[in-house]
Amino acid sequence: MLASFFVMAAMAADLRLGIVGTDTSHVIAFTKILNDPANPEHIPGAKVVALYKGGSPDIESSASRVEGYAKELAEKWHIEVLPEISAMCGKVDAVFLESVDGRKHLPQFRELVKCGKPVFIDKPLASTLADAREIDRLAKQAKVPWFSSSSLRYATYVTELAATKPQGAITWGPGPLEEHHQLDLSWYAVHPIEALYTILGPGCEEVTRRVGANADEITCRWKDGRMGTVRALRPYGDYGAVVFLEKTVKQSPPAPKFSYLSLLKEVIPFFQTGKPPVPNEVTLEMFAFMDAAQRSKAAGGAPMKLR
Where in the chain are all domains bearing CATH 3.30.360.10? Predict the structure, then answer.
């Protein structure tokens, strides 16, 4: 029955998409690409049609944006605003779970699995490893497909460096912290962590995290002996990467550009087929990576195994 839903959704003139959480700029960026045929990055075949605002009053970046973004979506893009997630579910074929607060994702996903429709969960998947695993358990139980990714996974500089099949890599990017997220790297440093996983693939076994004045450095060893490093810059900084090949190194260009178009080119086919382009197990390993890094930080920089 689930397979027939995906076939029917893919054959529809336009997939009807819902948004949960209007407290991130992603909701505006995604809607512009999907709903505006005049946009040079427009992706046809899917439109945002409904939303549930959500929001977190104890996170300033959420509380200060949720109403404004919801208003813009409603007035400029004619998106229907619904008072409950359950009310939105009957009006859409798939859902963007966009709440900026990772703590909200598990309780909101509990509601979404009742809809039986595919869900893209924007970064971070959750604020703890336990929540991330519970989302996966609920999804398996209800046979609801989910996919989560940073847009950085599909940035050109990341995919080009990944194609070199390097022996090791260093990635860097902004790493500001947010006090309510127990895995503090999940708030923003998940971006360069996802870049590292795109370049080296899964298979990390040990993580060591050192805290500095303006950055955290997370060194990690893969099961095959390769080494990787993530540098989380505070409060902010540019993105980038270096990969180590057998006889040379390659580096990303300064301040590399990336857009949400490449990510949405993966999300829309996922909505149509229910097949995530990145295995859920890889995303969960990234959260085990951040959990190990959190334990290493608490232990003063001692190496920690992924669990």
Answer: 152-259+288-305
